[in-house]
Design goal:
By secondary structure, the protein is of the alpha/beta class. It has helices at about 15-25, 45-55, 75, 80-90, 125-130, 150-160, and strands at about 1-5, 30, 35-40, 65, 95-100, 115-120, 135-140, 165-170, 180, 190. It has a single domain (about 1-190), classed as Alpha-Beta Complex (DHBP synthase), CATH 3.90.870.
Length: about 190
């Protein structure tokens, strides 16, 4: 397992490119977002996504959210209405996950048993750079139903399994996951505050 120490405001591009390469060949990474540390994988790699389910001990029928690098990239995985896009532009990048109707390109192993997908654009330079070539999984780096921790050392101890790469920016000030807002209804619905 590789560990890269990074400055969140000025990350080393060689290390970011190596992380993107690891994601592109099916690796699983631990990386910082604007809220908590997340586990990431290329959404199109079934084996890597299943590894995240296993690492988190998360039921395989529970969908995971996706991170993209910018508003334009949301159109890869969802058809945005003009109203949805205008609303999202007010909140992203930021600590929000928006539930939208998914396109068929989103694999069912990422979002099983649902026609929707949770989409994030974290207010984190590192997160956005990691998803510049393809969307990645963004799910809190914790065992399901256990406390979300805010530094890689404690997270790895809780997970009790190696990932392929850790992007370590130190202890995050936040340990609260993103607010979830469902935009698939006529009016937005807050799922998690």
């Amino acid at each position: 397992m590789k560990v890269f120490k990074l400055n969140p405001n000025n990350p080393d591009m060689d290390l970011i490119n190596e992380a993107i390469n690891i994601l592109s060949i099916g690796g699983v990474i631990l990386y910082p977002t604007d809220t908590v540390y997340g586990l990431g994988a290329n959404i199109f790699d079934k084996f890597a996504v299943k590894r995240i389910y296993n690492i988190k001990k998360r039921p395989h029928d529970k969908p995971m959210s996706i991170s993209v690098s910018n508003i334009k990239d949301i159109s890869i995985i969802s058809n945005l209405s003009q109203n949805q896009e205008e609303l999202i532009k007010n909140y992203l990048p930021g600590p929000y996950t928006f539930i939208l109707n998914k396109k068929p390109i989103v694999p069912n192993f990422v979002t099983p048993n649902t026609y929707t997908v949770g989409i994030r654009i974290p207010d984190s330079k590192i997160s956005r750079m990691l998803s510049c070539n393809f969307p990645i999984i963004t799910t809190s780096a914790n065992v399901s139903n256990l406390k979300t921790l805010n530094n890689p050392k404690d997270i790895l101890k809780q997970l009790n399994v190696d990932v392929d790469l850790v992007l370590d920016v130190g202890t995050l000030n936040n340990s609260k996951p993103s607010k979830i807002i469902d935009l698939t209804k006529i009016d937005p619905v807050i799922i998690r505050d």
